[in-house]
Structure formats: C-alpha cells, structure tokens
Amino acid sequence: MKNRIIAIALLSASTQAAFALSLKDAGENLLYFEHAKLSAEHCEKQNVSVRPALAGWQQQTMPLYRQSAEAIRSEGAKRGLTKSEQDDVLAAAIENQRQLAQDNIARKGVPCKNFGAVLEMYSTLLKR
Known about the structure:
Layout: H1 2-12, H2 23-45, H3 51-78, H4 83-108, H5 115-125
Helix pairs in contact: 1-4, 2-3, 2-4, 2-5, 3-4, 3-5
C-alpha cells in the first residue's frame, strides 16, 4: 500500500527527470503502453489477430518504454529510495495505470478491426 501511494504521488509530480522526460509524462506513457497491451488482449479474445501488430509497435516504442520506466526509478532515487523500493514503486505505477486502462477498455471497448489505427493513436499520444 505504501508503495502504491508513493507511485501515485510520483506520477502526479511535475518535476523534470534528468533526461527531459517529466515524471508526469513518464506515467502517462505507461498508461498508453498498458492500454496497447490490454487492447491487444481484448481483440485476441474477440478472435481478431493483432499480436503481430502489437509486437511491431512494442519493438518500435521499447526505447521510450525504458526511458519512461527509468524516469520513475530516477525520481525514486532522488527521493532516497533503494533500488528495490524503486522497482516496487515502478511496479505499483504500472499496476495503477493497468487498472485505469482496464477500466477504460471495459467501458469503451476497442475497435479491433482497426487495431493499427489504435496503435498509431497511442504513438501520437506518447510523450517524448
């Protein structure tokens, strides 16, 4: 619970990370990455094959995913958290964003037939 609270506090902070990706932007990016994964799972359950498109998108955006995760860890380090605590905060942040994405997908669904366009939309929303 403590780590979840710290994660939420860190995600809502607006300080700049050392490599120009703000903590807020990093948290928002995690939301889009979780949305993409969960959207693919949703479409696969609907018998629409989207895994190859997701795999290509993930490969393309992996450096930004890593940069987003590192921004969260870096903020934890600045606040005196150990490496293990930084990892816990990152995991809690991802879980928090995953829950938000799940809730959104449950309410709105996913246009599986246009999954490529969905991934393009996520790409345009990612902060760099």
